[in-house]
Amino acid sequence: MLTGAGISAESGVPTFRDAQTGLWAQFRPEDLATPEAFARDPKRIWQWYEWRRGLVRAAEPNAGHRALADLAQRVPQLTLVTQNVDGLHQRAGSHDVIEYHGNLFRDRCSVEGAVRDRATGTTSGLPECARCGALLRPDVVWFGEAIPAQAQRQADDAATNCDVFLSIGTAAAVYPAAGLADRAARAGAQVIEVNLEPTGLSERADVALHGKAGTVLPALVQSLART
Ligand code: BV8
Fold first, then answer.
1. Which one of 27, 42, 119, 214 is separated from 77 by 20 to 30 angstroms, measured CA to CA?
2. Is 210 a catalytic residue?
């Protein structure tokens, strides 16, 4: 399964398509989630991520997240790959979630590249590495950056070896994540899309269920439970 921002929408976490609100309304996420933007103005980028952390802390997993955690108990082999950096799948009880684009709540050293704790003091007023004092950055994948190697390998393997590939709450427009469904289809899997509206994947999917994930997924899991 591959999930995107749409599965967290019903938890009050804005999708990337949803217009940003307040201070961020004037920015496209694609312009903020880049190493260049961070190099240019780390203070602004940290404000954006702190804003998003606040939104997610105030959010709760929804019926869509819970249905996927439930499904994992019912099917023998299930791999959950998410593009979301909000950690809501894990809070809903899903295990071994492949965080394809990282996680909002971890910091990594902008020089050493490793996940690091924050230094107690800070000379720049921004989070700094407890080990080398360099600026910390959120442990997420920015546009133009590579997917973490282990996550990419695990996701590719799961897509190549699955019988059913579920694409949930994603516009399927950001690569290489958007290529996973085609990889699964080429390997003979059934591709099922669950999304509020048609996407670039819809016509290539074997089944396209258009509706809210928080409604469609519990119904899907229940119907599977009856079989
Ligand atoms: C890379 C983390 C190279 C940060 C993110 C091939 C073709 C074209 C372009 C490219 C290509 N290959 C690479 C690129 C460039 C780029 C890319 O894909 N650009 C796009 C814009 C065209 N890709 C990259 O830059 C990638 N890196 O290529 O590096 C490289 C390789 C090796 C070595 C060095 C370098 C990295 C991409 C990752 C960027 N990071 N996030 C952060 O979050 O701050 S991407 C971010 O945006 C999300 O993680 C997610 O992936 C994406 C948003 O997409 P969705 O999740 O689909 O969300 P969206 O809002 O778009 O849609 C939501 C959907 O839900 C909608 O359809 C809506 O209808 C639906 N919905 C709404 N409510 C509900 C619902 N559905 C169900 N229920 C509901 N209630």
1. 214
2. no
